[in-house]
Amino acid sequence: MAAMDANSGYDRMKELKEFDESKMGVKGLSDSGITSIPRFFVHPPETLSDFKNSSSTCTNIPIIDLSGIINSKDSDHRLKIVEQVKEAAKTWGFFQVINHGVPISVLDETIHAIKAFHDQPHEVKAKYYKRENELGGVMYTSNNDLYRAKSAAWHDSLQAWMGPEPLKVTDLPEICRNEVVAWDKSATEVAEIVMELLCEGLGLEAGKFKELTFLDARVLVGHCYPYCPQPDLTVGITSHTDPGVITVLLQNHVPGLQVKHGDEWVNVKPVPGGLIINAGDFLQIISNGEYKSVQHRVLANSSKEARISIVIFFNLAKWKGDGYHGPLPELLSPKKPAIY
Ligand code: OGA
Ligand code: NI
Questions:
Q1: pTM for the full predicted model
Q2: Site to substitute for ligand 1 among 237, 277, 316, most atoms within 8 A of C-beta
Q3: What is the per-residue burial (b if ≥16 Cβ within 10 Å, else e) of 14-41?
């Protein structure tokens, strides 16, 4: 007898479609009070057993204090920070920055506004619900890859292209419009500072990445990971690497993000006022492997309170379009040949 398929005995496509067409997202499912999750969210045992092997140690990704460089010209101190950023990007691919110059009130308002969007009745959000987001657009969806992934994940997202062309601001949902615009501005300022440090760490001019327009094409994604009644059977986001140059991530106090470090999955503890930065695939390639684009994932949320995270992916369009396909020539030498 043929092995039983985990999905046999039910019409998976029909259930996916019903969920998609309901436009209710996982937030809607969660709010409806269900006690078991639809089967298409259930992940295979090999994925789930890997989730059980999460690190129980107290390691956290490196925390880098930017206070000394924001308003200071102390070059010795700056060199120290450059070293920290370089080391973190090489060995972890992830770090958290604190004292980055953005007031805590701006972080809080951004989180509240994204939460407020997701907290609306799904009939209100439905008007933004789509599957494809053209360059420059805004969309709300549950699981970008709903029809492609083997199993769905327990999150919904609001996405907006913030550049290279300025977004039509009125396309953003009113409930989070001003906050999204303000956050994009603040996060881009932090990204610029971090890119300068990353450049210096490679021995490049500080402004090199900006000059190469890496701050321009960017997508903001406001994720909601609502309470999941069966968090051991599914995931918040499956393990992946990010495609762009860097990602800036702001999260609320509900944990769930994990980063692969060696053979271990390390929990990223939310640090009040902290912003998480990670290197994307594009940075790994252009840096000729100096900086690492590392696997990360999010656990399904077992807390009654929703986990909210807002990510901005920088230099996303270049990945798909033309631009650079290999390491920056100035980083190559006979001793350091291109590995991509
Ligand atoms: C992503 C991502 C993590 C999070 O959107 O690429 O990794 O904490 N998100 O939401
Ligand atoms: Ni990611």
A1: 0.94
A2: 237
A3: ebbeebbeebbbbbbbbeeeeeebbebb
- Do 160 and 169 form a contact (C-beta atoms < 8 A)? no
- Whole-angstrom distance, CA of residue 128 vs CA of residue 179: 18
- Residue 222 Cα to ligand 2 middle (Å): 12
Number of neighbours of residue 335 by Cβ within 10 angstroms: 5
Q: Is there an atom of ligand 1 within 6 Å of 296 CB?
A: yes
Question: Is 298 a pocket residue for ligand 1 (Cβ < 6 Å)?
Answer: yes
Q: Which residue owns the Cα nearest ligand 1 atom 5?
A: 311
DSSP state of 39: G
Q: Ligand 1, residues 61, 311, 313, 319: which to mutate, most atoms within 8 A of Cβ?
A: 311
- How are the residues of the chain apportioned to helix, strand and coil, as percentages rounded to the nearest 5? 35, 20, 45
Task: Establish whether residue 297 lines the binding site of ligand 1, counting it when its CB lies within 6 angstroms of any ligand atom.
Answer: no
pLDDT by residue, tens only, the chain of 340 residues: 333 455 466 899 999 999 999 999 999 999 999 999 999 999 999 888 887 766 556 678 999 999 988 877 788 999 999 999 999 999 999 999 999 999 999 999 999 999 999 999 999 999 999 998 888 899 999 999 999 999 999 999 999 999 999 899 999 999 999 999 999 999 999 999 999 999 999 999 999 999 999 999 999 999 999 999 999 999 999 999 999 999 999 999 999 999 999 999 999 999 999 999 999 999 999 999 999 999 999 999 999 999 999 999 999 865 445 555 789 999 999 999 999 9
- Work out the burial of residue 113: count CB atoms within 10 Å of its CB; fewer than 13 is exposed, 13-18 middle, 19 or more buried: buried
Q: How far apart are CA 54 and CA 202, in angstroms?
A: 32
CA–CA separation, 171 vs 162, rounded Å? Answer: 11
Q: Are 264 and 155 in contact (CB under 8 A)?
A: no
